[in-house]
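QA checklist item 7 of 12: single-chain prediction sanity check.
[x] sequence parsed
[x] length recorded as 227
[x] structure emitted
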Amino acid sequence: MASDASSSEDPIVKALQEYTTCDVSDALVKLKIPNGGFLPGITLWSPQRQEGPTKIVGPAYTVQYAPKDDERPKWPSHYIDSIPTGAVVFVTCNPSTSNALYGGLMSTRAKASGAVGSVIDGRFRDVQEQRDLGYPVFARDVGTTPPGSLFKVVAVNAPVSVSNDGQDVTINPGDYLIGDANGVVVLPKGLAEQALPLMAKQVEADSQMAVEIQKGMTFTEASKRFR
């Protein structure tokens, strides 16, 4: 059964609703996080393809696939039945595969459990079914073949890694995943309280810059004045 604890009660989730993924990355760059926590190549596919106001914010619920000959045993239950309310489902596979890691029934169950969206570090399938559900899915690409013939789930709610320009980005269970039309960013849970004030300051500065630039001020001048 899914947990009754909703991330909507988490003040960090509530605060992050006010910011874009770009705002989060700007803050993480200031905190010396490589690539600002950006997860490259993962884009919005549902309920629309790279358009609309879709945004997800929530703690990560991680799922790790591996080849069937991996020494780790297959996870004893289906991960989709233990998603906490308010979570963002994050599914990855090492090594990467052309098989789809995730499908429409997974989103049906995730939505019923109160998940806010799913992020697939790989391919997913049943695109129209996902869109008919109105359920947010971010992924690298689409596919048709299920993973079961070649891959198995070996870990759930354990740290996973995603490659980013030769550097590994680690996603720990409970780290905040933020997704919108710009992409997906991971905000380490331990940095959230430091990052939020930086976001607020940056957004205020950018808003002031935009007003003055529209009045005719140069970008260079506005940057000097407000940043």
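[x] summary fact logged: Residues 43 and 138 are 5 Å apart (CA to CA).
[ ] second reviewer sign-off
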